């Protein structure tokens, strides 16, 4: 069975376009030979927020501020797995 791979996301180290595995939600950079996961931090307190995907729309929850965040009020980044 073929894996569902999509070219998306930019590697935080080398700026290469990474492949996303839709099954695991992980990103893989062929140049770094490294797997990354998408994470986000709250733009108010700077703490890592939880990723909630409700109805296909990306939403985030900050446990520190105790509030729901939209994509615009968080900073997305890739973290080494
Ligand atoms: Zn890379
Ligand atoms: Zn916060």
TrEMBL record:
Keywords: ATP-binding, Helicase, Hydrolase, Nucleotide-binding. Transmembrane segments: none annotated. Pfam families: Zn_ribbon_6. GO terms for molecular function: helicase activity. The keyword ATP-binding applies. Coiled coil: none annotated. The keyword Ubl conjugation does not apply. This is Replication restart DNA helicase PriA. It comes from Hypnocyclicus thermotrophus.
